[in-house]
């Protein structure tokens, strides 16, 4: 844990990274360190989900790494409600590419017990944050293709690059068995693509139960998305 002096003059979050001094918290785990040390955030904030808002603001100044487009709150809640509706309640829910834990947060608000949740991500800082924000859940620092155990219930906002998205769906088809389900946030129209051929070859492994356009924009991209519920055939 890094030690931070109290910031005497705090700026609004929208100006925090613009005016940030080098000794102020930068990453989300550092902001959490500051909060635990001073019982306050290093910026003025009146919302109820600082990890999401702070990450979006950090991306505005520093750019987006590996298409980490965070799931907005309303979309996360919509996906969590679909998960509760479609998933086998007796099986673990895997929050794949969990990021800051937006989908885990929404699932907890839906009443899912934290012990039923497993989140994983390749980003060490985000896994560190996830573990500390949701200590009763399980967390792994791994890329999705390194996960080789069965994932009966998956909820995910995976990478949006075409090649990476295909790899994710191929991984999902390998780690799920017939009847297992997933609630996914995918690029709009991706599952209808005829090229590359791998998209339709992979989608043949799944039955589509539900799809609906995302009703709110991402914070850092104009890319459109849709929520898709699939079952392993």
Report on this structure:
The protein is α/β, with parallel strands linked by helices. The protein has two domains: 13-62, no CATH class; 73-232, Vaccinia Virus protein VP39 (Rossmann fold), CATH 3.40.50. The protein has helices at 13-19, 28-38, 50-62, 73-86, 102-109, 124-133, 162-175, 197-203; strands at residues 93-96, 117-121, 138-141, 153-156, 181-187, 206-213, 225-232. It has a seven-stranded mixed sheet. The chain is globular, with a radius of gyration of 18 Å.
* Architecture per CATH nomenclature, i.e. the level-2 architecture of the largest domain: 3-Layer(aba) Sandwich
Q: Give the CA-CA distance, first to last residue.
A: 46 Å
| CATH H-level superfamily of the largest domain | Vaccinia Virus protein VP39
- Strand share of the residues? 15-25%
Mass-distribution shape: globular
Which strands sit side by side, in order, in the main sheet?
Answer: 3-2-1-4-5-7-6
CATH class assignment of the largest domain: Alpha Beta
What is the percent of helical residues?
25-40%
State the secondary-structure class.
Answer: alpha/beta
CATH topology (fold) name of the largest domain:
Rossmann fold
Secondary structure tally: strands? 7
SSE arrangement, N to C: HHHHEHEHEEHEHEE
Give the biggest sheet. Answer: 7 strands, mixed
Q: Count of helices? A: 8
**Whole-number count of domains:** 2
The poorly predicted ranges are none
What is the overall pLDDT average?
96
Rg: 18 Å
């Amino acid at each position: 844990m890094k030690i931070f002096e109290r910031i005497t003059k705090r700026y609004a979050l929208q100006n925090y990274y613009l005016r940030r001094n080098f000794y102020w918290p930068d990453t989300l785990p550092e902001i959490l360190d500051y909060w635990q040390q001073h019982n306050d955030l290093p910026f003025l904030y009146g919302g109820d989900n600082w990890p999401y808002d702070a990450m979006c603001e950090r991306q505005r100044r520093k750019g987006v790494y590996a298409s980490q487009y965070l799931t907005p709150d309303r979309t996360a809640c919509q996906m969590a409600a679909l998960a509760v509706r479609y998933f086998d309640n007796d099986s673990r829910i895997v929050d794949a590419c969990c990021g800051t834990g937006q989908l885990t947060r929404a699932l907890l608000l839906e009443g899912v017990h934290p012990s039923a949740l497993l989140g994983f991500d390749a980003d060490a800082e985000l896994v560190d944050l996830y573990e500390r924000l949701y200590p009763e859940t399980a967390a792994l620092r791994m890329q999705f293709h390194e996960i080789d155990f069965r994932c009966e219930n998956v909820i995910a906002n995976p990478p949006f690059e075409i090649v990476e998205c295909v790899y994710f769906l191929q991984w999902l088809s390998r780690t799920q068995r017939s009847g297992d389900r997933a609630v996914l946030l995918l690029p709009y129209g991706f599952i209808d693509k005829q090229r590359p051929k791998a998209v339709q070859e992979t989608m043949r492994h799944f039955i589509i139960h539900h799809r609906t356009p995302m009703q709110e924009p991402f914070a850092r991209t104009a890319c459109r998305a849709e929520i898709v519920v699939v079952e392993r055939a």
